[in-house]
Amino acid sequence: MTTIRSMLADQSMAGEPERRGDERSEAARSGGSPAIERAAPPDPEVRAKPERRRFSAEYRLRILKQADACKKPGELGALLRREGLYSSLLTNWRRQRDHGALREMRGRRRGPKPRPVDPRLKQLEAENRRLQRKLQRAETIIALQKKVAEILGIPLKPLDNDETD
After folding, report:
1. Residue 77 three-state SS
2. Angstrom distance (rounded) from CA 156 to CA 162
3. Rg of the chain, C-alpha, whole Å
4. Apex CA 27: angle with CA 22 and CA 29, to 5°?
5. pLDDT of residue 42
6. Total H helices, total E strands in the chain
7. How far is 47 from 144, CA to CA, in rounded Å?
8. pLDDT tens digit string along 82-100?
């Protein structure tokens, strides 16, 4: 006859939590062993603005090559379904391929093209910085002259209207 103490010892040895006769283990309640992790459910949130898919030139050429290799009925439809594409995309991509646009796309980057820097622009910017420093020095000297005139009590003439900024 087993005692309660021996039953508790057996359960603690097995690493299982103590439970009553009508309770099931946590693993049985959750549907599997605790070591098996379940994948997180997909996020049901819908984005406010959907993102447009972008296809590289290499991808387009590869799909066109696969589409051209489809000879049996239904093969092309299966390819389009597998890749999640529309037949109108194939039409546009074929037109681009025939005009050579896909070859040009390979090396190009999206966005505005960098403009070449005019050497005169650099020269003008350097001259502008030099003149700004010179103006700052002149304003400092003028402010100092005003303070000296104020200390000595020398009245200064007011500026004409056309000289003010």
Report:
1. helix
2. 17
3. 40
4. 55
5. 74
6. 7, 0
7. 63
8. 999 999 999 999 998 888 8
Measured in residues, the chain has a length of 165
Q: What number of other Cβ atoms are within 10 A of residue 80's Cβ?
A: 17
| Whole-model pTM over 0.85 | no
User: For the residues of 10-30, what is the DSSP string, one character each?
Assistant: HHHHHTPPP--TTPPPHHHHH
Please report the DSSP string for the chain in residue order: ---HHHHHHHHHHHTPPP--TTPPPHHHHHTS-TTSPPPPPPP-PPPSSPPPP---HHHHHHHHHHHHH--STTHHHHHHHHHT--HHHHHHHHHHHHHTHHHHHHH--SSPPPPPPPHHHHHHHHHHHHHHHHHHHHHHHHHHHHHHHHHHTPPPPPPPGGG--
Q: Which two tokens stand for residue 124?
A: 């003008």
